[in-house]
Amino acid sequence: MMRASGLTKKYGDKTVVDDLSFEVHPGTVTGFLGPNGAGKSTTMRMLLGLDAPTRGTATIGGRPYAAHPAPLTEVGALLEARSVHPGRTAHAHLTALALTHGIPRSRVDHVLDLAGLTEVARRRVKGFSLGMGQRLGIAAALLGDPATVILDEPVNGLDPEGVLWIRNLLKSLAAEGRTVLVSSHLMSEMALTADHLVIIGKGRLLADTTVDAFVREAGAGAVKVVTPSAAELAALLTGPSVTVTGDSPGTLTVRGCDSAHIGRTAAAHGIPLVELTPHTASLEQAFMDLTRDAVEYQATVRTPAQATARTSTQTGAQTSAQATALEGTSA
Amino acid sequence: MSTPTHAVTSPRSYAVTPARVLRSEWHKLWSVRSTWITLLFSAVAMVGVGLLVAANYEDGSREFVDPIQIGLAGTQIAMISLPVLGVLCTAGEYTSGMIRATLTAVPRRVPVLWAKTGVLTATVFPLTLATCLIGYPLAQSFLTGTDQEAALTDPGVLGAVLGTAASLTALSVFALALGALLRSVAGAIGAYVGGIMILPEVISMIPVDAVDTAMEYFPAQAAGNISALDAVAGAGAPSPAASLLALGLWAFGTVAVAGLLLKRRDV
C-alpha cells in the first residue's frame, strides 16, 4: 500500500503539489489523473524519493521508499520515457540495475521476454522507437518482481497493440495482488484500465473515487427537462431508481430513466415539455469540467453517497482509512 | 495498517549492498562504447606523443625539459581525455536520464558516487601506469646518448612515472566529482578545462607572492610537480609527496562535496 499525506512541493514560491493526501491500495489499478502540469510526475518522484517534499510524507508499504533494503523488489517505476543511456544495450541496462540488488541474469531475460524485447535485447537503446523505449522502461519496472508498480504515462508513444498490452498488463498485475498506480492525462484510457481514480489539478486533490462513481457523477444517463409544470413532473417521475433535481425554476435533471419514458409520462399526464435533452457529457468532458476549476468542484465531488459507493467495494480496514482521509482533506 | 499479502515471492536475499553497487557501476562503465574509445585514445596518445617528441628531440635542452616531460609528453592530452571519461560517468547519467533509474535502484544515493569513484580509479590508474611503463622505455630508445637518457631504474624516474599515473587518476576523479556537482557534461568539461588550464593563468597575473605559492597547489600544477624529476623542479616547488597530497585532497574533497549535494538535491 502506498500513502501520501500532506504532500507538498514548492519550487521557489510556486506550489506544484499542494497538501496532497491519498492512498493507493493493493489489488486494484489506481489511475492518477490530472491535466498537464497538475503535479502528477512531481508526486510520483516524491513517492520514489527522487524529489524531497517541502512538507508531508510519502510511504510505500509503511516506509519511505529509501528505507527499503531492496527497493526494486518493493516498487517498480517507469518515470519519464527515457531513463536509459542511449549507448547501452537493453540487456546491459537491465543488468546494471539487477546487479545493484543481486537479481540474477535469468530474471533480466525474463522481463525482456515479458516486454517483448528479446530480439532487440542486444541492440543499443539509441536505435529504439518510442514504443520500444517504453517497453524497456516497463521491463525495468518489473525487474525486481515488485509489490508496487508506479507508471508515469505508460501508453505514451505506444501503438494500439502496445496500448492493449499495457492495459492487460496493468490488470493482471493488480489481479496478482499488487498495488498499481498509473498516471495519465487521458480520462478515456483510464476509464478502460483503472478501478480507482485519484484526480489532481494544480497540485490539489480534486477527487479520490472509483471509476464507477465518477461515471455516475459525470452525469452519464441524465436527461435535462424544461417544462412549465416542473414540480408536477418531478413528483410523477421520482421513484426508487430515479432521482430528479431542479437546477433552476422550470428545469429538471432526471437520472435513472431515459428520455422516452419521460416523454411518455409527460404526455400521459398532459404536461407540456419545452425541452427534453439526453445529457451526453462524456467522461472526458466530466474530467475537464472537474479539473477546470479546482475549488468549485472540490465540494460537489466528495458527496457522502459517493464515499459509500466507493468504500462498499473495499474491505473494512480500508473503509475507515478512507473516511479518515476524507475528513483530513475536508478540514 | 496491515498490508495485504501480495502474490510476489521474491527471495529476501535481494538487497542493495556496497559490493553490488560497485559491481553495477563496473558493468555500467564497460557497457558503453565511449569508455573503450576514451581509454584507447588516451593510451595511444600517451605513447604516440611521447615517441614523437622523443624522436624529434634535439640534444642540449635539459635545463628546460626533463626525460619524463619528453617520454610522457602525451600526458598533456590524457589530462583532458581521461577526466572527460570521469565527467561522462556522472554528468552523462544526468544528460541521458539514467540517473533516475540509478537512484531509484540505490535510493541512499551516496554509495553510487563512491562506487563510481572506485571503479574509475581501478580503471584509470592501472591503465595509465601500464601505458607509462610501455611508453617511457620506448621513448627512451630514441634518447640513448642524449642528455635525456634516464632508465626507469634511475633514481626518481620510477617515482615520477608512478606519480604521473596517480595524478592522471586524481584529475579524473576530480572531474568525475565536477560532473556530479554540475550535472551537465558540457558544463563539467568546461569547468574542468577552465579551472585547470585557464584559471591558474588568470590568477597568476595577481602580483602577490602568496598567490604564486598557492598556485603550486592547484590541480594541474600539483600534477606537474608530482611527475617532475627533481632536477627540473628545484625552484622552491612543493615536494612530489606534498603535491600528491594536495591533488588527492582536491579530488577527495570535491567528491565529498558532490556526495553531500547528491544526498540533498532533487533529481
From TrEMBL, chain A:
GO terms for molecular function: ATP binding; ATP hydrolysis activity. Residues 305-331 are annotated as: Disordered. CDD domains: ABC_BcrA_bacitracin_resist (cd03268). The keyword Transmembrane helix does not apply. Gene3D superfamilies: P-loop containing nucleotide triphosphate hydrolases. Residues 2-227 form the ABC transporter domain. Keywords: ATP-binding, Nucleotide-binding, Transport. It holds the Pfam family ABC_tran. InterPro entries: AAA+_ATPase, ABC_transporter-like_ATP-bd, P-loop_NTPase. The keyword Phosphoprotein does not apply. Residues 305-325 have a biased composition (Low complexity). Transmembrane segments: none annotated. PROSITE patterns: ABC_TRANSPORTER_2 (PS50893). Belongs to the ABC transporter superfamily. This is ABC-2 type transport system ATP-binding protein. The lineage of its organism: Bacteria, Bacillati, Actinomycetota, Actinomycetes, Kitasatosporales.
Automatic annotation (TrEMBL), chain B:
This is ABC-2 family transporter protein. It comes from Streptomyces indicus. The chain crosses the membrane at residues 36-57, 69-92, 113-136, 156-182, 189-208, 241-262. Keywords: Membrane, Transmembrane, Transmembrane helix. The keyword Membrane applies. It comes from the Bacteria. The keyword Transmembrane helix applies.
